[in-house]
Amino acid sequence: MPGTPHSDRDRREMLAALGIDAADALFADIPQSLRATAMPELPPPLTEMELRDEARRVSDLNRNLDDLVCFAGGGIYDRFIPAIVGSVASRPEFVTPYTPYQPEASQGTLEAIFEYQTMISELTALPVANASLYDGATAMGEAVLMAADATGRSRALMAGALAPAARQATRTYAEASGVQIAEVPWDDASGQTDLGALAEMLGDDVACVALQQPNYFGCLEEMAEASWLAHEAGALFIAMVEPISLGVLAPPGEYAADIAVGEGQPLGLPPGFGGPLLGMFACTEQHLRRMPGRVVGRSVDADGKVAYCLTLQTREQHIRRARATSNICTNEGLCALAASVYLAAMGPQGLREAALLGAERAHELQEAMADSGLQPRFGGAFLNEFALRLPGDAEATVRALCEDGWLVGPTLGRDYPELSDCVLVAATERRTREEIAGLAEALQRAARPED
């Protein structure tokens, strides 16, 4: 093992202590197909000048949202970001710190996180919220484990129309924790979760029910009824929400959700090739001490002045260790700061206007598609995103549109083989009527190249 400071004897002693014969056993959970068997062939070294030229050449292979008109959906959206977000978030005192372990030196960071928590609590209508989760997908995994711990039950029901990344991350979390995951089917006509099937799947071993609003197909779910069904069976209800939609849709607290999670990227974070992201997490006060991540609290110091500190930390080396309810240990403070500035700049009315304008543009887009002979795959009500059925190969159509300057997708076939002819399209407040008309024409050309 080149590069390690351990001798052969050191390694033998460590393997013996672990009860294994070889280090390969440590990687048994990683599929063989994903393991590198040899070092890749690397190019020869470059001078600094050559390296800059090569980096520029590789960068030019990418196309960004300055080159493409974005109608892409699937959880990451191209929304307007007020200039003040970048101005505040790029200040050195916010960019450079990591974890605010020392409150006396981290008051600004702690106050920003406290304000973020307060805004997420108001947005979700739940009493407590935290910071420090990676993204919406892992927040869902944490929520399911938290529900299993709170109820002492070992089975979780997740909507099949919930974001694939969240379902996959949750299965990874659950596999190591002994929690069984079952998926609730969606109705083929409406695209909504089949609540009749949910009722039949519920039992006294179910820890939680998780639905997404709007769901991955863009359809609006019957969240209040699903929450009632879960609680009747003694299970917790988890709502995965899109934050901008809460400007017009009922917040999780209003339909008695026990836990709310979501992807915070629309709150002032650019798409950025899918990252960095921000996991939102809020819950009822009953489950506060089981909540993963960190909770910043506001108090007063010895002089009676306002002071902020890390009130609760589910997993830190210096306090919880083996008693931790979660191993989450990141900060994500800069992303939370950007979300706080965005929410403060937009305010409740601005958030509502952004949600309504996106919905208006999406319905105009759906009508333009219908005029072009293209119909939504599902009949359920939607807000700002819907699944569009294409007559040709969906992947080929998306590639053709990209070459033509339009970004749509993702295609649904990658996660739902039965929907291989469908693609997600979304509209936000950034899209114009002229762009909608342009996409309709481009889609008609791309979907029917023989014409």
What is the element layout, followed by pairings?
Layout: H1 8-18, H2 48-59, E1 69-70, H3 83-89, H4 92-95, H5 107-124, E2 128-129, H6 136-151, E3 155-159, H7 164-175, E4 180-184, H8 195-201, E5 206-213, H9 223-232, E6 236-241, E7 259-263, E8 279-283, E9 294-300, E10 306-313, H10 333-371, E11 385-389, H11 394-403, E12 406-407, E13 422-426, H12 433-447
Parallel strand pairs: 1-12, 3-4, 3-5, 5-6, 6-7
Antiparallel strand pairs: 2-8, 7-8, 9-10, 11-13
Task: Explain the overall architecture.
The longest helix has 39 residues, at 333-371. By secondary structure, the protein is of the alpha/beta class. The strands form four sheets. A seven-stranded mixed beta sheet has the order 2-8-7-6-5-3-4, with helices on both faces. Strands 1-12 form a two-stranded parallel sheet. The protein has helices at 8-18, 48-59, 83-89, 92-95, 107-124, 136-151, 164-175, 195-201, 223-232, 333-371, 394-403, 433-447; strands at residues 69-70, 128-129, 155-159, 180-184, 206-213, 236-241, 259-263, 279-283, 294-300, 306-313, 385-389, 406-407, 422-426. It has twelve helices and 13 strands. Helices cover 36% and strands 14% of the residues.
